[in-house]
């Protein structure tokens, strides 16, 4: 004996499904490139409703209110919606009319974002990896303008004092004049400079007196 499956237990990819349902609505007929007629019908049992795709003459025979037994059906996702199909060797048999307990809610053929995400997992991976790429690229260019703004002329600052940046430091030079005044005292220990002749003569007399 075949076990019956309820609408609430149908998942994408399941095969050899056996159901008993009542037809609630019959959709419009659409023709394929091969000339086949396809009709989508809304069916339900006591656990919920789902869409079933019916081909050719079988679709023309189905009417709302028919109670049908599906054998060897399978479930798949079509445009993000869970849909029933009759598989190879499957069959639809009318076993009654109207007298069946059913529930339209929940509708398991409503668009489900989880099904659409499973169909395109690679797109989600690319979107997650794309924002990670720009941060490393933006890092180095941000540092370059900062260094140029600090240096003014990028290459002039590291070798020595540049004309532009040291202009505000001019008030700090007066202590350097004091150092120049103390230079004669430091030069006394060294050889006499050619410029200060008077100082050199004084140094020679001091050295001769010490001797």
Please give a structural write-up.
The chain has a domain at 7-120: Beta Barrel (OB fold (Dihydrolipoamide Acetyltransferase, E2P)), CATH 2.40.50. The chain contains six helices and five strands. It has helices at residues 56-61, 113-119, 121-129, 134-151, 174-187, 197-210; strands spanning 17-31, 37-45, 48-55, 66-78, 81-97. The protein has a five-stranded mixed β-barrel. Strand 1 (17-31) and strand 2 form a beta hairpin. The chain is globular, with a radius of gyration of 47 Å.
Can you lay out the helices and strands and say which pair or pack?
Elements: E1 17-31, E2 37-45, E3 48-55, H1 56-61, E4 66-78, E5 81-97, H2 113-119, H3 121-129, H4 134-151, H5 174-187, H6 197-210
Parallel strand pairs: 3-5
Antiparallel strand pairs: 1-2, 1-4, 2-3, 4-5
């Amino acid at each position: 004996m075949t076990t019956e499956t309820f609408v609430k237990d149908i998942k994408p990819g399941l095969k050899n499904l056996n159901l008993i349902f009542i037809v609630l609505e019959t959709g419009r007929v659409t023709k394929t490139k091969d000339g086949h007629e396809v009709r989508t019908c809304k069916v339900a049992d006591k656990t919920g409703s789902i869409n079933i795709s019916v081909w050719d003459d079988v679709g023309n025979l189905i009417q709302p209110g028919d109670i049908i037994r599906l054998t060897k059906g399978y479930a798949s996702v079509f445009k993000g919606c869970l849909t029933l199909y009759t598989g190879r060797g499957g069959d639809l048999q009318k076993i009654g009319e109207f007298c069946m307990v059913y529930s339209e809610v929940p509708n398991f053929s409503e668009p489900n974002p989880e099904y659409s995400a499973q169909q395109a997992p690679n797109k989600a991976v690319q979107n997650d990896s794309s924002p990670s790429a720009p941060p490393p690229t933006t890092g180095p260019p941000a540092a370059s303008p900062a260094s140029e703004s600090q240096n003014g002329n990028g290459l002039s600052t590291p070798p020595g004092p540049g004309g532009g940046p040291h202009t505000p430091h001019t008030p700090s030079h007066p202590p350097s004049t004091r150092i120049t005044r103390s230079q004669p005292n430091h030069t006394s220990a060294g050889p006499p400079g050619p410029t200060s002749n008077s100082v050199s003569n004084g140094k020679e007399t001091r050295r001769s007196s010490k001797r």
